[in-house]
Amino acid sequence: MGGPVEDKISELEEMARLCRIDIVKMTHAAKSGHPGGSLSAIDSMVALYGTIMRFETNNPDWDDRDRFVMSKGHASPAMYALLHQIGVLEENDLMTFRTLGSVCQGHVDMNWTDGVDFSAGSLGMGLSFGLGCALSARMDASERRIWVMLGDGETQEGQVWEAVMAANYHNVNNLRVIVDRNRIQNDDFMEVQMEIGDIGNKFHSFGWSVREVDGHNMSELVEAMQWTENTDSGPIAIIANTTKGKGVSFMEDNPEFHGKAPNNEELKIALEELS
């Protein structure tokens, strides 16, 4: 029989599995979307919201909540799946993904969806936004922490590193970054398009505290979340080594499913594998 820790890990793993089902179902329904990067990011997001994230599902606009900035905003299916599993969105909402007037737009939009804290578009802007939120929290003498999810391809954007440098200069100790290090961007592998190298070392060179984890090992992810609670020496980065399309065999490490929805037959296979 497992103890409380093992039971919690199992609970989070089950939530992540259900989120993956939501991701493939909503992208199939829309016949578009970005399943690959959503499937790679979801374990980190579940680990965060399932442990230390200060968030009230019955009051998603609570002023003093922690903020989650989905900078890789095209991975919106992961955000909506998580919000569904924690009780903010309904399954019917997910099935309207990417349709006119839906609360589940193609990129996350804080004006449309409860529980979303950032309106995404062009990549590279989320960390600057998160830095501003973190400085605002400091001015308010608030305990809220700001979490930013970056894609690894997104770290090719210069604005990311301007924010990294500024966060250290201002000693912003309530700012945390998760890098979804799945090594695929858009329609090819990063090593083909423009490899970024050792991302963790780059953050460290700017004075950040850094921890590298297996982004699909829930125990490691939970430990990393708890580690951030005990680190109070400036901004923090977690480098989550992941597999794009994780959990669906034909999507894993397959650049084709960066921005391609599963067809009817592929959905059937995906649901069987996730059952």
Any idea what the CATH superfamily is called? Thiamin diphosphate (ThDP)-binding fold, Pyr/PP domains
Task: Indicate the radius of gyration in whole angstroms.
Answer: 17 Å
Give the strand content: 5-15%
Main β sheet profile: 5 strands, parallel
Whole-number mean pLDDT: 96
Q: What global shape is seen?
A: globular
Task: Describe the model.
This protein is α/β, with parallel strands linked by helices and 275 residues long. It has one domain (4-274): Thiamin diphosphate (ThDP)-binding fold, Pyr/PP domains (Rossmann fold, 3-Layer(aba) Sandwich). 42% of the residues lie in helices and 12% in strands. The chain has ten helices and seven strands. It has helices spanning 4-30, 35-49, 76-85, 91-94, 126-139, 158-169, 190-193, 199-205, 218-229, 264-274, and strands at residues 67-70, 146-151, 175-181, 184-185, 188-189, 209-214, 236-241. The strands form two sheets. A five-stranded parallel beta sheet has the order 1-2-3-7-6, with helices on both faces. Strands 4-5 form a two-stranded antiparallel ribbon. A hairpin with a 2-residue loop joins β4 (184-185) and β5 (188-189). The longest helix is centred in the N-terminal third of the chain and has 27 residues, at 4-30. The model has no long low-confidence stretch (mean pLDDT 96).
What does the secondary structure layout of this molecule look like, with pairings?
Blueprint: H1 4-30, H2 35-49, E1 67-70, H3 76-85, H4 91-94, H5 126-139, E2 146-151, H6 158-169, E3 175-181, E4 184-185, E5 188-189, H7 190-193, H8 199-205, E6 209-214, H9 218-229, E7 236-241, H10 264-274
Parallel strand pairs: 1-2, 2-3, 3-7, 6-7
Antiparallel strand pairs: 4-5
